[in-house]
Amino acid sequence: MRAAVLHEIGQDKLEVLDDVEAVGFGPGRVRIRVRATGLCHSDVSAMSGVLPQPAPFIPGHEGAGEILDVGDGVTGLTPGQRVLLCWLPACGSCAACRRGQTQLCLAGFMNAGTPNFKRPGGDVFGFAGTGTFTEEVVVDAGCAVPIPDDVPFDIAALIGCGVTTGLGAAINTAKVEAGSSVAVIGCGGVGISAIQGARLQGAAQIVAVDPVESRREAALRFGATEAVAPEALADAKQRITAGEGFDYVFEVVGKSATARTAYETTRRGGTLCVVGAGAMDDHLRLNMFELFFDEKRILPSMYGGGDVLRSYERAIALWRAGRIDLESLITHRVPLAHINEALEQMRTGASLRTCVEI
User: Rounded to an integer, what distance in angstroms lies between the CA atom of residue 50 and that of residue 43?
Assistant: First the structure.
């Protein structure tokens, strides 16, 4: 079957090959025919080494398709069923799951260390235990989440990561209050979803911050009340909050420099929500006096900060009701053979989300 493979960490292009085989099918596992996958910035970060991932590997973790086969012991899933791929399934029995913090379950991360593909030359890993830049993938049954027939594969794919992450950051983690002021730094697919989440929560002012003009223009269509380049953020803070700072600031870039800017843009007693996934050696510096004196809440948000299955259901309900716009998040479409075009669109900021149709 065909798949897009990164041979070594640090390479900036994928090679589309037709000699890849999905492996590991058996009890408790399902085989999925991937129909659509989104390109998330985490895929690029794994390719560059910012996020840890063994190579060679197939990127992609934001996908949807239909079940081809189910292994022994799998219940509730049948061949032909439409599903989205959950890259961080909850085991239901660990300490985090028992506390109700299923987004912190480590079972999914354990999957990332087991190859789920192979080529004549050896094993191939799937990013985050999935690897959706391929025609077929074998995953644990918990990774396959059924979706209603009226949800298109491309929309379902977005819900599998970016939409859930952004909406959840605003609704579950930060719990944005009605009438509040919000700034979102980084307006790709996740940032735009955070903007939509803040709008749903009733924020009065939502300032989108991004260096790319087309993304700033898009942010206004999705609910931002103002959109500025990074160098104009200080002026927006002064004009909108009289210099006090925003009630909520979302950092959706994953860099210490932007996280520091976000901290400084948050009012005393306000909330900084860190959504971007960054590198282990990129350290955010804060002094002990400002931590004490400013009393700002610093809240990291992992995969939307809540039960992802409930978050999926909520996103579908909001989309059906016309409360969130998911179709317009997809600004580009490419076939798997042109996956490197999608990578370039993401790196340059030309796309919000590119849908890879497989």
Answer: 10
